[in-house]
Design a protein that fits this description.
Number of strands: 9
Radius of gyration: 22 Å
CATH architecture: 3-Layer(aba) Sandwich
Organism: Fusarium floridanum
Family: Belongs to the sirtuin family. Class I subfamily.
GO molecular function: histone deacetylase activity, NAD-dependent; metal ion binding; NAD+ binding
Order of helices and strands: HEHHHHEHEEHEHHEEEHHHHHHHE
Pfam families: SIR2
Strand order of the largest sheet: 3-2-1-6-7-8-9
Distance between the termini: 15 Å
CATH superfamily: TPP-binding domain
Number of helices: 16
CATH topology: Rossmann fold
Largest sheet: 7 strands, parallel
Number of domains: 1
Protein name: Deacetylase sirtuin-type domain-containing protein
């Protein structure tokens, strides 16, 4: 099959698997009815769906947003910036809103796991709701960074109706709260820089420790606390990574398996080994239709990506914020002091023991901060957020790289060369 033989990682030979391969993983799944599978997904799982890439240097959404009317690309997901300039986010929301994109084969595989009673829990960093569209039960989904599924006023927290939200997003209008005397901005329940993580995340991390198998699909594992989840799996339980490159500490345990390449290609290989390929393809095509299935198989070329970026830029320019718009927006917002500082000053009740349940605003590039030049230079504080890494998989909410938790299992030795399978799948 062209697969590399397993090389020994920490802990010696495999304990749960016969060898470090997808064939052995399939054998492991099939040798018991009560296997509890936890799936961890990032933006790479939605690549084939056509959702814009966030962090890749050339095609990434952040890289291209730098060309638009923003002080810095990540500002589109900054709660402070959103309070005064919500228009760019809503142009982006029009692009990413549920219904425009369709699930991938990888999403369908997770739904198939649920149908077979094998899915313990899905933790996703994505905000696109494609897991729901694929048929994964909502009770089995933990959206670590929120999603477009619900929305509410950022001031009074009153929920906003789905139909009105859709009307505003596709009508190019910024929604405002209808509660008497409020008129606050409405935002999808996506975790912005400076906001708290959903309580459901902290309440469900124990599922990883209960898992018999952990599948990690399309994530860079650079953002905590999500990046700590793989380390919570028991030492003698297999972990399988489907990604374009090796990430985190995956590969250091004796039962780790790494499948490099496009997520859908790796998932199809595992489905072949399980004998589920026909069932998987049928479920996927029934969900997305033959036309969309063929489009995903064909993929997008560079011209299509460039056209999409140019169209997005034109839409942002159409709602460019001039001085009058800025003033109107500020009058509509609640007269509060530094919103980000207020958030940072709180102690959210869902704070994890190893990580504050907030995502801090990213540093603003020096060339965009004219006002800073007028102030005396000071040493940066230890709490200053590090720069966002440039390389990432696909769509997911803003991520800030942070230090791993003290209780995370990080081997002191140099990581051993993992068993890496690198093979193109021809359909």
């Amino acid at each position: 099959m062209g697969q590399d033989e397993s090389s020994m990682g920490f802990g010696g030979p495999p304990k749960a698997l016969s060898e470090r391969s997808l064939a052995a993983v399939a054998e492991y799944i099939k040798t018991g009815r009560d296997k509890r599978v936890v799936v961890l997904t990032g933006a790479g799982i939605s690549t084939a769906a056509g959702i814009p890439d966030f962090r890749s240097p050339k095609t990434g959404l952040y890289a291209n947003l730098a060309r638009l009317n923003l002080p810095y690309a990540e500002a589109v997901f900054d709660i402070s910036y959103f309070r005064s300039h919500p228009e760019p986010f809503y142009v982006l929301a029009n692009e990413l809103y549920p219904g425009k994109f369709h699930p991938t084969v990888s999403h369908a595989f997770i739904a198939l796991l649920a149908q077979k009673g094998l899915l313990q829990m899905l933790f996703t960093q994505n905000i696109d709701c494609l897991e729901r569209a694929a048929g994964v039960p909502p009770s089995k989904i933990i959206e670590a960074h929120g999603s477009f599924a619900t929305q509410r006023c950022i001031e009074c927290k009153t929920e906003f109706p789905d139909d009105k939200m859709k009307e505003h997003v596709f009508g190019g209008k910024v929604p405002h709260c209808g509660e008497p005397g409020c008129n606050g901005l409405v935002k999808p329940d996506i975790v912005f820089f400076g906001e708290s993580l959903p309580k459901a995340f902290d309440n469900n991390v124990h599922n990883v420790a209960m898992a018999d198998l952990v599948l990690i699909i399309g994530t860079s594992l650079t953002v905590y606390p999500f990046a700590a989840l793989p380390g919570m799996a028991q030492e003698d339980k297999p972990r399988v990574l489907f990604n374009m490159e090796r990430v985190g500490m995956i590969g250091n345990r004796s039962d780790d398996v790494i499948e490099l390449g496009a997520c859908d290609d790796g998932i199809r290989k595992l489905a072949d080994e399980l004998g589920w390929r026909d069932e998987l393809e049928r479920l996927w095509r029934d969900t997305v239709g033959d036309e969309e299935a063929e489009r995903q198989l064909r993929g997008r070329n560079e011209d299509e990506v460039e056209d999409e970026v140019e169209r997005l830029a034109a839409e942002v320019e159409a709602v460019a914020i001039d001085d009058d718009t800025k003033a109107d927006t500020k009058e509509e917002a609640s007269p509060e002091t530094e919103p980000t500082k207020e958030v940072d000053g709180e102690k959210p009740d869902n704070v994890l023991s190893y990580q504050p349940a907030t995502i801090s605003p990213p540093p603003v590039p020096a060339e965009t901060r004219e006002e800073v030049k007028e102030q005396p230079k000071t040493e940066p504080t230890k709490t200053e957020s590090p720069k966002v890494p440039e390389a990432e998989s696909k769509v997911q909410p803003p991520e800030i790289k942070s230090q791993p938790p003290q209780d995370a299992k990080t081997p002191q030795e140099q990581p051993a060369k993992p068993a890496i399978i690198k093979e193109e799948t021809k359909l």
